[in-house]
Structures are given as structure tokens and as C-alpha cells.
Design a protein that fits this description.
Bound molecules: S-adenosylmethionine
Helix content: 25-40%
Shape: globular
Strand content: 15-25%
CATH topology of the domain at 51-224 and 234-245: Rossmann fold
Largest sheet: 11 strands, mixed
CATH architecture of the domain at 51-224 and 234-245: 3-Layer(aba) Sandwich
CATH class of the domain at 51-224 and 234-245: Alpha Beta
CATH superfamily of the domain at 51-224 and 234-245: Vaccinia Virus protein VP39
Length: 286
């Protein structure tokens, strides 16, 4: 790939978490991973932090981020398995992600961006809260509802519609440009749920990289800085490396942080593999 040559790992930092006793966390250490992709014309950073996003966001400088893509823990009723979730096993998998998130994060996101430019993955329950936050409380921001249409949903439709849609709320401030063309700007993106990535990265809600690449290309220019403050397995990080954007990621769970770190390293190696040309066969001139 054109932009990358080496990955310089500048180090892992471990700091003890302050006030651990007060926090319902199992993690004992904060870690961070800083990689650099050095290329002829590009010098890409990826900074992945194992941390609580609100705490880490408060340390990021004002106006340092061009685009935010985030996939926060969704709000859902924890009334048990089955039903809306397709199966009890799936419910158990995503249950820890069902508490929603602190909306103070949204205020911090406004501070770290010069102009709000933000994609938020959501289910219908969280969407309601987000719409109140943006359309009612912040009407100066423009909102659009985008859809990720899953073409292979779980075959569970007993007394309900299929769970084949995920909502993405796109919020931007006046003056923020939207690039792209007729095809990349469709409000509906159809693809299979990426079972392969879910298995590979052992994360139940991994998002498709091509979809993230589409949002990144539509909303930034190469070299821009993209933040994902609920990074999970760092799908957004991979999409950033593939599109030549800087990545800042924050993930609380040490297991997913580690997965993300490996994923960024592997993506970088993949992108920087020299292309081996097959030698041309000599023609027999007999
Ligand atoms: C819905 S998942 C994101 C999945 C991600 N889009 C991907 O493709 O892998 C939400 C993630 O947020 C993380 N998380 C939850 N609370 C957090 C917090 N306070 N700060 C940072 N990360 C948090 C969870 O551990 C989980 O991995």
C-alpha cells in the first residue's frame, strides 16, 4: 500500500487507575499503544488507549479531531434472553454492552472537534435519547438517519420483524462538508453481518470495515484525524489505516484493547507488504 513503510511502536504505558475502589471496573492497568506508519508522503499515527472514554477524552486537546465514529454500548431492556435478541446465547454475549453510556461524552466530543462531525451507531431505544439530545436540545446541528441493512439476519421473527437494521445517526454542524458520490452517499448500506470478523476478533458487535471506510471517505480528507471512543476491536482503526487517516481509539476492556492493538499492527503489515511481481515467462521461439 502506498502510504506505509514501518510501524514504529513508541511504547506501552501502564498507569494505575486512580480511585479504583470507587469504580466498578475490573481492570487494574491503563495501557496505550502508539504506532506510526511512515511513508513517502504520509506519516500516519494511530493512538489506541485502554481507558474509560470520558476520562481520556478530557485529556484530548480542543479541536484536535476532524471526525468521530462511535458505536457505544446500546440501551436495551434487560428483561431476559430470546425475543428481540434472537437467542438467549446472543443476549448473554451482548448483555454487558446494554447499559448505554454517559451523555457527558457527547459534550466532550463537541469540545475536541472544531465543528461537530459525528456518526453514532444505535438501536431504536438509544436513538430516541440521541434525537432528544440533538434535535430538541441542539437544533443548530443537522441530523440524518442512515441505515446499515443486514442481509443475513438471525432467522428469528416470532411475533416481530426481523432484526436486520442498525441505525446510524449522522450529526454535523453547518459548514462541515460531505464528499463522496451518488453511490457512497446512499443512506442505506447493505451487507452481510460480518460473522468472519466477529469470530476473528472475538467481539460480538464488530462493524464492517467497508462501511466505516465509506463514512470516513465521505466525511474527511486524507490525513484527517478520526476518533472512535468505544473502539471495541478497532474496526474504525483498520478503516483509518486503509484510507490514510490518523486514528485515535479508546477502549475500556483490556481484552478488546489487545485485540485492537494486534489488528492495527497486522493491518499495517498487510498494507506494507511489498508487491512481489511474478517473473514473466519467456516465450519459446522455436
Ligand atoms: C458496541 S462495542 C464497539 C464495537 C466496535 N465498533 C467494533 O467494530 O469492534 C462498544 C465497546 O465499547 C466499550 N466500552 C464500554 N464502555 C466504555 C467506556 N466507558 N470507555 C471506553 N470503552 C467502553 C466496550 O468494551 C465495547 O467493546
Amino acid at each position: 500500500m502506498a502510504f506505509g513503510r514501518h510501524l514504529l511502536v513508541c511504547g506501552f504505558n501502564s498507569h494505575p487507575l486512580p480511585n479504583m475502589a470507587k469504580q466498578k471496573r475490573t481492570q487494574t492497568n491503563k495501557k496505550s499503544f502508539h504506532g506510526k506508519c511512515l511513508g513517502k508522503n504520509k506519516n500516519l499515527n494511530c493512538d489506541l488507549y485502554q481507558d474509560d472514554c470520558l476520562e481520556r477524552l478530557r485529556k484530548l486537546p480542543d479541536k484536535s479531531i476532524d471526525l468521530v465514529i462511535m458505536d457505544p454500548p446500546y440501551l436495551f431492556d434487560k428483561g431476559g434472553g430470546g425475543g428481540a435478541f434472537g437467542s438467549r446465547a446472543y443476549y448473554k454475549e451482548i448483555e454487558p454492552l446494554g447499559d448505554g453510556f454517559d451523555f457527558q461524552v457527547l459534550n466532550e466530543l463537541e469540545r475536541v472537534q472544531e465543528k461537530t462531525n459525528l456518526y453514532i451507531f444505535s438501536n431504536i431505544k438509544l436513538l430516541k435519547e440521541l434525537l432528544v439530545n440533538y434535535q430538541v436540545n441542539k437544533p443548530h446541528l443537522r441530523t440524518d438517519l442512515l441505515i446499515w441493512h443486514k442481509t443475513n439476519p438471525a432467522p428469528s421473527c416470532n411475533n416481530k420483524y426481523l432484526s436486520n437494521l442498525e441505525y446510524v445517526l449522522f450529526v454535523r454542524e453547518k459548514g462541515v462538508k460531505l464528499f463522496g458520490d451518488y453511490h457512497t452517499k446512499s443512506k442505506v448500506y447493505s451487507s452481510q453481518t460480518n460473522k468472519k470478523d466477529k469470530k476473528l476478533y472475538d467481539h460480538p458487535t464488530t462493524k464492517p470495515v467497508p462501511l466505516l471506510e465509506n463514512y470516513i471517505r465521505n466525511s474527511t480528507k486524507p490525513g484527517a484525524t478520526v476518533l472512535d471512543c468505544f473502539a471495541g476491536s478497532s474496526s474504525t482503526g483498520e478503516a483509518c489505516l486503509r484510507t490514510g487517516r490518523h486514528f485515535v481509539g479508546i477502549e475500556l476492556d483490556p481484552k478488546h484493547f489487545k485485540t485492537g492493538e494486534k489488528r492495527l499492527r497486522d493491518t499495517h503489515s498487510q498494507l506494507t507488504q511489498p508487491v512481489v511481481k511474478k517473473p514473466k515467462k519467456k516465450k519459446n521461439r522455436s
